[in-house]
């Protein structure tokens, strides 16, 4: 479950960041940062998983 959540949030962030690069719309940066935060949290959970 964590793997799908991490991959999905990374893909979501990359797509929104691409949209930001094309349009320059600053409102998109908040979901990009939230998606990166979720993927970072999942990565840290993978590291602590034994």
Give an overview in words:
This protein has 50 residues and is an all-alpha fold. It is built from two helices and no strands. The longest helix is centred in the first third of the chain and has 22 residues. It is elongated, with a radius of gyration of 12 Å.
Task: List its traits.
50 residues; mainly alpha; 2 helices
Lay out the secondary structure.
Elements: H1 2-23, H2 29-48
Helix pairs in contact: 1-2
Overall mean pLDDT stands at 86
Sheet having the most strands: none
Low-confidence stretches: none
Distance between the termini: 16 Å
Number of strand elements: 0
Radius of gyration: 12 Å
**Beta-strand content bin:** under 5%
Q: What is the SS-derived class?
A: mainly alpha
Global geometry: elongated
- Reading the helices and strands in chain order gives HH
Secondary structure: helix percent: over 70%
Compute the number of helices: 2
